[in-house]
Protein 1
Amino acid sequence: MTNEPQEKPILHIEGLNKYFDDLHILKSLTTTIHKGEVVAIMGPSGSGKSTFIRCINRIEEPTSGQIFFGDIEVTGPDNNISNIRRDIGMVFQNFALFPHLTALENIMLAPTKVKKKSKADAKETALALLKRVGLEDKASSYPEQLSGGQQQRVAIARSLAMDPKILLFDEPTSALDPEMVREVLDVMVSLAKDGMTMIVVSHEINFIKEASSRVLVLVDGEIIEDGPSNQVIENPSHQRTKEFLGKIL
Amino acid sequence: MDGAFDIDEIRYIFFNMQVMEGQWGLLFSGLWMTVKIAVVAIIASTALGLLVSILRLKGNAFTNALLIGYLEFCRATPIVVALIVVYFGLPFLNITFSPFQSAVIVIVFVHAAYIGEAFRSGILAINIAQSEAAQSLGLTQLQTYRYILVPQAFRIVLPTLSNQWTGIIKDTSICTILAITELLKAAQIVAAWKANPTPLVMSTLLYLLILIPLTIFTMKLERKAGLKK
Ligand SMILES: Nc1ncnc2c1ncn2[C@@H]1O[C@H](COP(=O)(O)OP(=O)(O)OP(=O)(O)O)[C@@H](O)[C@H]1O
Ligand SMILES: [Mg+2]
């Protein structure tokens, strides 16, 4: 690997295990992610991709192991997890916008309530973000008045409003009708080009080729492949990866 | 016997405006007392109900057992009995409340149990993804309740809530057993004094003066909530 050794990784995961009852879902995962990397996570259904990404901000509680976010140990018992989560954005498969708030209010909520920004400040940022995701005319729409693709773009803007150091995506386009996938991927590609650090669970091969620098393949709770996107996709080292890629390509 | 169904006789007995002459003042002051009890009780029982629901959702086995006991107690006890215990019973422990306080305490105590159950099921009906999204943005649990779960639960339970609020207004009539002249008591006083039930009939119409605006208010809320769903 060609990591500059002087730069501290943005995320370091060491021996992460997750059990659901007796089921061993994540098996001692260890990996390191640096600033500006766009890491795609692929793998068959049930392999633990969602569980893995949800453990990073402890929406899912890891059973054991350590997660370091910069200098902070996310898994440290004395850390205030809410404070840590401010800097780790998350985008969900089903958008999870707040249905009782407008698009603008969805984006302004956390900056005003969590970061105690002024309403005026937060509104200015929120409008700029809506513009960035191409929805400046939807500020006062409620989620149910938006298409899936539009909702997901608002959800991305909502995460960006907290100015996160890293963004986690769990299959952000898999709940969308095919004609809406592109508009969401375009936003993600532009974020990647701007240098945003991202971990993206996705099987969108075009996005991976276009925007991601690295692919992890997760099978049965283990990372069986970790390398540059081209190499993993064109020339995987594992038979399981070949089978799996054969199905989705 | 045609006399029993004579329209004039019915009017004389139940809609006798002569009986009401000079008595409206007492009825309206009774109405005002009913409104005061109801407004305080509605606000307090809704707030307490919300607290109960969150305690139920976040509590441990001990608080849960306690709160289930509380709910079952309210289900099993006639509200008049509860009022008698508070107003006539507690003074034996040197705990004394005014009639107004006793009425409010009992109504709030009983209705908060039901409202708490309603809020609990409302919050449980909200997709877990809503909490996860809120917490992934850095909201604390308390903030998640305050800004995400409770506002959505309100919209879900509004029809139930509106029933409870109506029930509270009706339950203010238990005050007739106390030295407190709310609407029904005022009507009873006049009816006894005039030996004619017309004031009681008029009091039912005056209850509508409160219930109709309340219904309009909750319908407006529901329409607004529907828009924001
Ligand atoms: N809350 C839970 N309780 C019990 N088992 C769970 C829970 N969440 C996930 N699992 C199990 O953990 C395993 C991994 O699930 P996970 O959702 O992480 O897989 P995934 O790779 O994201 O799959 P998909 O591609 O279908 O989204 C699955 O076998 C799933 O059934
Ligand atoms: Mg998943």
Protein 2
Amino acid sequence: MRAVEEVVQETPTVRTLAFTDAAMHAALPGQFAMVWAPGAGELPMSVMVHRGEGKAAFTVRRHGPASSGLFGTAVGGLIGVRGPYGNSFDVRRGRLLLVGGGTGMVPLMRLLSRAGGDDDVTVLIGARTAGEVFFEEAAGRPPGGSGSRAVEVSTEDGSRGRKGLVTAAAEEALGAGRFDAVYTCGPELMMLGVVRAATARGVFVQASLERVMKCGVGMCGSCCAGADIVCRDGTVFDGDHLLANPDFGRSYRNKAGAPEAYGDARGAPAPGAGIGSR
Amino acid sequence: MAPSLSTEVCPSLTIGAPTMLASGILGISADVFARVAEAGAGAVVTKSVSREPRDGYQNPTVTGVRGGGWLNAVGLSNPGAGSMAGMLAAAAGGRRGAPVIVSLVGSAGPEFEQMAGLFEEECGGAVAAYELNLSCPHVARVGLEVGDDPALVREVVRATKGATGAPVIAKVGLGSARYMDTVEAALAAGADAITAINTVRAMSIDVAAMRPVLSNGIGGLSGPPIRPIAVRCVYEIALQHGAPVIGCGGVSCWEDAVEFMLAGASAVQVGSAVAGAGWVGVFSEINAGVRRYMEDNGFSGVREVVGLAVQRR
Ligand SMILES: Cc1cc2nc3c(=O)[nH]c(=O)nc-3n(C[C@H](O)[C@H](O)[C@H](O)COP(=O)(O)OP(=O)(O)OC[C@H]3O[C@@H](n4cnc5c(N)ncnc54)[C@H](O)[C@@H]3O)c2cc1C
Ligand SMILES: Cc1cc2nc3c(=O)[nH]c(=O)nc-3n(C[C@H](O)[C@H](O)[C@H](O)COP(=O)(O)O)c2cc1C
Ligand code: FES
């Protein structure tokens, strides 16, 4: 068990909990942990970057029982952490485009921390409304070298940044400039849009998938998507691989393991699974 | 000639390699089954399906055990027999790979009869055998609670046999009754083979949180710690009944597989070991080791190894 050492309120419903754990501190961008809030439940969580020596964090949105339990863990409270699990983003050099929706920003922040000081990175953040935007400032912090960091926010209600879906902003960015790589994490239909847009222009793209996870180690099978076992083959996949996966952007396995179709293009929480809620 | 890996599990079921994917492991997707078959498994057993879908328990449902092995109480989450049958039917057309064994779980004869009937109707040709889960240790009214009642065991085996011509395998575990009574009841009712064993009822408590780790409190222990128990059960079944047995429990390398064969198993199932570094590569690793062992010892096939230790002491 790890003691929570610091709690940062990112938005009314999102908190970052920091703790000390050498293995989590060293996690690669895109890796996740299985995080246990005793009495509330255990969930897969991307490992959030923390600059403190030997420290890492989780950034959690309060939603159902398990995430609310984790969200409600105060400084000094104990959480169980196993992992890190899964593969990681292939962090390229040059001009990078990061497209995140909701807590899908978490693995992208770790990726950003591994980007080179001389790389030019554009970060597109999507949210429903102004009050749900977080990591905007951290993502825009200038890098050490000659590179640049640009952040653009899209909100569905137009209360901050541009009005509309972040996929529209991604389309536009890809149309306007040349990128060496695109990375995305968030609701699956958002990622589908981003992967298609990048692939259509021949740009290398990777996305990190979310599924129901029980073991995290490739044993239980609950996280399958097509022939892929997301916790072990992924969670990060190349765009062309995803476009060949019959489940990507179409269906996920619910808690019983039965296939269910994704809902509307806005990535509304799918019934009873928490999938797409980030 | 190189020794053959193919093995006769029971008279009407012969498979190409003696390693099977155990039930509940990567067990809900036909695409994944095809991949596991390509990785070398001689057969795959599905997640145990019930008549209705089950969500199972909340996480934590799986946890590693300090000192080795795994503990799980997933609560038999499964998409239901109808969904599984539909998926197998859809996959049957372009089928690659190994035979699929469907695992069934329920409380009484009519449920098993109905489910087996449903599979026979929807995708009968794609089901190589049925395995009856008489041994899940962490869900009320099914699994071990059925296995602990010999009359009920006879009822569910007969009901399943009545609904299909495919072999019916009874998977037994260590409950509160004598497991050999379950074995005897199943064989008397016509079971074609026995799988031994399932996970063993167990629990872990976190010392810092001062509470059980699994949300269900009690779960089932799997992996290397249960292997000697499983080997003993396979040995006893082979010794007392000479019936076809599939060994299951803690198999993670070829020596483990051979140990089960010497104890009387004509095949083994591999579960927790897929969590290891080699992942699904564990099947071909075990197969290669078994083949080498047969070569080194002058055996031409699996049948010559099965039960060798039963006659020796
Ligand atoms: C690889 C990965 C990384 C993630 N990273 C983050 C992150 O950094 N921040 C964040 O806020 N969220 C993240 N999520 C989503 C998170 O795991 C939950 O799905 C989400 O918090 C909703 O949980 P909830 O308790 O609100 O449950 P609900 O959506 O209300 O569902 C009810 C219950 O179902 C169970 N459940 C829900 N989702 C899952 C799941 N994916 N696997 C197993 N059981 C589940 C829990 O017991 C939960 O309490 C990630 C998911 C994955 C797969
Ligand atoms: C996560 C998990 C889920 C399981 N689900 C089932 C199941 O649905 N039906 C069943 O008969 N056995 C189930 N089992 C038991 C395995 O099939 C096997 O009997 C047991 O794990 C021992 O083998 P092992 O040591 O190789 O894992 C499950 C085991 C695990 C670890
Ligand atoms: S979460 Fe169990 S196999 Fe991926």
